[in-house]
Amino acid sequence: MRNLLSLFDLSTEEIEAIFSIAADLKAKLAKGVREPLLQGRVMGLLFEKQSLRTRVSFETGMAQLGGSSLFLGEDVGWGKRETPQDFGRVISQYLDFIVCRAKSHERVTELAEHCTCSIINGLTDLFHPCQALADLMTVQEEFGSLKGMKIAYVGDGNNVSRSLALACAKMGAEFAIASPEGYELDQPFLIRVDQACPDSFVKMTHDPFEAVDGAVAVYTDVWASMGQEAEQAQREVAFADYQVNKKLMDAAAKDAIFLHCLPAKRGQEVTDEVMDAKTSRIVEQAGNRMHAQKGVLVWLSQQNG
Ligand code: CP
Ligand code: NVA
Predict the structure, then answer these.
(1) How far apart are CA 89 and CA 65, in angstroms?
(2) pLDDT at position 121, please?
(3) What Gene Ontology terms describe where this protein resides (cellular component) (predicted)?
């Protein structure tokens, strides 16, 4: 049974296959065609944190594919009413896929150990693989390719930037990240990326202007992620020089696009001017969550038979 816990689970060719299914389904949907490729399949959404995009895009994507979804919040008692083993063995008899949004990545890997259906990471503290697939799908649509394109991320070395770095490494895009001291991507992760993708180019700096130089896409995320609310004030000080504003966008490649996973704290990590500029692709990017995830669901069902 194949899972998508992080992009370490997928080869470059497999990501290309997912993009190809996603693009095909997106083009068909634009003509009003909804192929029932997952008729009778059921997806559970096991969420410990809030979500707009991930939840709604998975549920609507699954409906368009002829399958159905169950939202599983607090009431199923995950981790509270019974052992992980009992929970996993039981729930995976009912479901074909579980999309899981959890406070810690270990919770999702533990769930996968005890389940016999496919587990898809819908965001953990460490990774957000479905987001990174939609991100690169958006860049590919814009520029026609990913190979050799420079993508810059300005901000926290978090779940979103970790997945984006890995996605770029897998797809041959250059990745530069500018973070304040103490908030960089961690070395064990970077070593793992290097081992998985020896030809990858991931650059870390503390200078946002150095990161965006030559970049065709500039990306940012909130300074304090879900679960880090107590650090908000301290992080606002640390990240004060890391705002994506017009001056920083002007230092990127000509016609560089702006990306953000959303939700954004407008006026903090990014200005309204950049969010709402002609070069902003935040809405298309959020739309691609659904298309990319339909690609993931169909691809996983092909692998799992
Ligand atoms: N980008 C993203 O995952 O959004 P949600 O938290 O709304 O799902
Ligand atoms: N880094 C953010 C992303 C939200 C989609 C968080 O984890 O809260």
Answers:
(1) 26
(2) 98
(3) cytoplasm
Instruction: Summarize the confidence of residues 136-154 as an average pLDDT.
Output: 98
Catalytic residue, from 131, 140, 268, 293: name it. 131
The closest residue, in CA terms, to atom 3 on ligand 1 is 54
74 pLDDT more than 90? no
Amino acid at 108: V
Query: Ligand 2: which residue has its CA nearest to atom 7?
Result: 225
The 10s digit of each residue's pLDDT in 174-191 is 999 999 999 999 999 999
**Considering the chain, what is the average pLDDT of its residues?**
98
Same fold, 7-127+289-304 and 130-285: yes
Distance from the alpha carbon of residue 211 to the mean position of ligand 2, in angstroms: 21
Domain boundaries, given as residue ranges, for the chain: 7-127+289-304, 130-285
State if residue 224 touches ligand 2 by the CB under 6 angstroms criterion: no
What is the CATH number assigned to the segment(s) 130-285? 3.40.50.1370
How far is residue 62's CA from residue 35's CA, in Å, rounded to a whole number?
11
CATH architecture designation of domain 7-127+289-304? 3-Layer(aba) Sandwich (3.40)
Is 53 annotated for ligand binding? no
State which of 51, 56, 124, 285 you would mutate to test the pocket of ligand 1, scoring each by most atoms of that ligand within 8 A of its C-beta. 51
Sheet strands (E) in the chain: 42-47, 68-72, 97-101, 118-121, 150-154, 174-178, 201-205, 217-220, 257-260
| Amino acid (1-letter code) at residue 57 | S
**pLDDT at 196 (0 to 100):** 97
